[in-house]
Amino acid sequence: MITKQETIQQIIRTDITNGFVKPGQKLASIRMQSQRFNCSLNTIIRVYQELEMQHLIYSRPKSGYFVVAEEALLPLLQTKRIDFASAAPDPASMPQADFRQCLNKAMELFEASIFTYPDPQGLLSLRQEIVKLFQQQQVFPSAQQVFIFSGAQQALHLLSGMPFPNGKTNILVEQPTYWGMLEALKTQRNTVIGIERTPDGIDWVTLERYFQSNMIKFFYTIPRFHNPLGTSYTPEEKQRLAELAKANDVYIVEDDYLADLETYSKADPIHAYNGASHVIYLRSFSKVMLPGLRIAAATVPTSFIPLLQRHKQAADLSTSVLSQGVLEIYMKSGMYSHHAKRMKSVYDCRMKHLRETAQRLLPKDCFYTTQRAGGIFASIRLPDSIHTEDLVKRLENRGVDVLATDKHFLSTFPKLNLLRLSIIRTDEQEIEEGIRIIAEELERAQYTSSSPKPFFWL
């Protein structure tokens, strides 16, 4: 839930950026604002202090608060775009003061470690906290099985290049999939095989054949809130994946990057389905915390520990102690769970509004597939006759940024004509306006094409 203080702050900020309060003009007094918003004086004081930290206003002793000079406001006064393309959190949604406090505390608590090369596997105290976090997802490793990486990208790169206990060499990936994984694979010499994943799931007959006959070292999958599709596997599908992997001695690299945003209490990861012996469970913190901290964690089967320790140490000696310290303090203090709960509520509301708006505003002859709420991504499939780059450009010219998904496919795999939508940097009003514009452009495209109508995947 967005707090009253945050709501008041956004209203005053909008007053400034829309020019209702001019540069150099004095803001209403704290007492007047408290009467306007029916809140305490302390609430307005905190709002003004936050806006001052954002360099939107400044205080004059005994005179009050004033809007900063026009030059400083210029970036805010420019036309705001509707950003369906970004996958990084909005800085305005991050509790930066809390992060700064944790950083200062980490400097104090981990001062000695800064001058050494710590365990390449990660600080033991942080790994113990990660174990507690994983247990909430029905994943029960020991601290010795947990590795801390310099971001999920490093984990994917190392896993792609190192040998696995099954002695196999080929890597299987969903198509489409996370583009960062495909970039990591480009730097390796292993054979990469793609298997199509649609909103209806995966071709189980083909998957089983690949597992049995194609020397698959591991299968990389995003079972929850897929990027870019936005869809999730059912519990039955996750159990089937775990059983197939174990039966065929194929490992699964489970990228559970949005586990913190799950709204369905019974949505366990693949690792929870008797898959501990053949599942590497990977968690990122970039969508809930600051991407710049570059922290991710994984639990691996015991047989992987010595080899992965060597590869991790060879890659970077150790992950940043300060980043690890900040995350540990943030988790131990309860700030992490509180912030994750808040962001889950915010993103859940946005995704529900996106689905409702799409069903109401997109062309009536579109076909929809709906599922439980949650996540940050949705996708639109376009007829092959529509040139995706042209549509993206037309939307860009109308102030709406979306993402074409070409880089989410292997170069050798047939590409679907997809647009990915992200709600991570939008609000409900922007979602409404953005979908309306997309609907108009899709409808315009239908009049110039005799191809089948687009499908909306959500």
Blueprint of the fold:
Blueprint: H1 4-17, H2 30-37, H3 41-53, E1 57-60, E2 64-67, H4 70-77, E3 82-83, H5 96-109, H6 111-114, H7 124-135, E4 146-149, H8 152-161, E5 170-175, H9 179-186, E6 192-198, E7 201-202, H10 204-213, E8 216-221, H11 235-247, E9 251-255, E10 279-284, E11 296-299, H12 305-316, H13 321-332, H14 335-361, E12 367-369, E13 377-381, H15 388-397, E14 400-401, E15 403-404, E16 418-422, H16 428-447, E17 455-457
Parallel strand pairs: 3-14, 5-6, 5-8, 8-9, 9-10, 12-17
Antiparallel strand pairs: 1-2, 4-11, 6-7, 10-11, 13-16, 13-17, 15-16
Cα gyration radius (Å): 24 Å
Report the CATH topology name of the largest domain.
Answer: Aspartate Aminotransferase, domain 2
Write the CATH homologous superfamily of the largest domain. Type I PLP-dependent aspartate aminotransferase-like (Major domain)
Task: Report the count of strand segments.
Answer: 17
Beta-strand content bin: 15-25%
* Structural class computed from helices and strand pairing: alpha/beta
Mean pLDDT: 88
Q: How many domains comprise the coordinates?
A: 3
What would your notes on this structure say?
The chain has 458 residues and is of the alpha/beta class. It folds into 3 domains: 4-75, Winged helix-like DNA-binding domain superfamily/Winged helix DNA-binding domain (Arc Repressor Mutant, subunit A); 96-334, Aspartate Aminotransferase, domain 2 (3-Layer(aba) Sandwich), CATH 3.40.640; 338-457, Alpha-Beta Complex (Aspartate Aminotransferase, domain 1), CATH 3.90.1150.10. It contains 16 helices and 17 strands. The protein has helices spanning 4-17, 30-37, 41-53, 70-77, 96-109, 111-114, 124-135, 152-161, 179-186, 204-213, 235-247, 305-316, 321-332, 335-361, 388-397, 428-447; strands spanning 57-60, 64-67, 82-83, 146-149, 170-175, 192-198, 201-202, 216-221, 251-255, 279-284, 296-299, 367-369, 377-381, 400-401, 403-404, 418-422, 455-457. An 8-stranded mixed beta sheet has the order 4-11-10-9-8-5-6-7, sandwiched between helices. A hairpin with a 3-residue loop joins strand 1 and strand 2 (64-67). Helix 5 crosses helix 13 and helix 14 runs parallel beside helix 16. The protein is globular. The two termini are 23 Å apart. The mean pLDDT is 88.
